Amino acid sequence: MEIMVSKRELGNCVEVGARKRQPRITGNARNHGQNGESLLFGNGDNMSRPVSTYAEICSSAAQHFARIREVLVERSVASTLNSGFLTPCRERLFVALGLNLFAVNDEKFMDMFVAPGAIDSLENERQSLQKRQKILHSCLNEFKSVARAL
C-alpha cells in the first residue's frame, strides 16, 4: 500500500465542503530507509501516523506568529532603537557636552584637554626655556660688545 503525501500551500484555502484530512507525517520513527535516513517525514511506504488537529493548528499558529514577529522585529527594531535609545542619548550628550564646554571657566575648560600633570610639565619646560633665552641673550650682548671693541 502506498501513501501519498499532499503538501498544502499557504493562501490556497478556498476549498468548498468537507474534505478528508490527509496526514502530513507518515511512517515510523524506528524505521530507516536504505541509506539510514528516517522515514518519519513520509519517505517510506509504512503505516501512516496521523497528527492531531490540535497539534497541527498549534504548529501552524506558531509558524504564523513567528513570521509576524520576524517582520515586526525587522521593521521596527531600527526605529524603536533610534527613537527610544539613540536619539535621547544623543540629545543628552549634546546638552552635557555644551555645558561642559561652554558653562565653565577657562581653567576648567583647559583641564578637560590635558592629562593630569601635563600643565606642571609644560610650566617647567617654559621656565627652562626662559632661562636658556636669558643665557643666549646675555651671550649675544657680549658678542656685540666684543665686536664693537674690535
Report on this model:
The protein is mainly alpha-helical and 150 residues long. It has 3 domains: 19-51, no CATH class; 59-113; 114-150. Helices cover 59% and strands 0% of the residues. The protein has 3 helices and no strands. It has helices at residues 53-102, 106-111, 118-149. The chain is rod-shaped, with a radius of gyration of 42 Å. The model is unreliable at 4-9, 11-17 and 23-47 (pLDDT under 50).
> Percent helix among the residues?
55-70%
Q: Which strand-content bin applies to the residues?
A: under 5%
The oligomeric state is single chain
- The helix count comes to 3
Spatial extent as radius of gyration? 42 Å
Which short descriptors sum up this protein?
mainly alpha, Putative ovule protein
Structure summarized in a few sentences:
The chain is mostly helical and 150 residues long.
Topology at a glance:
Layout: H1 53-102, H2 106-111, H3 118-149
Protein name: Putative ovule protein
Organism: Solanum chacoense
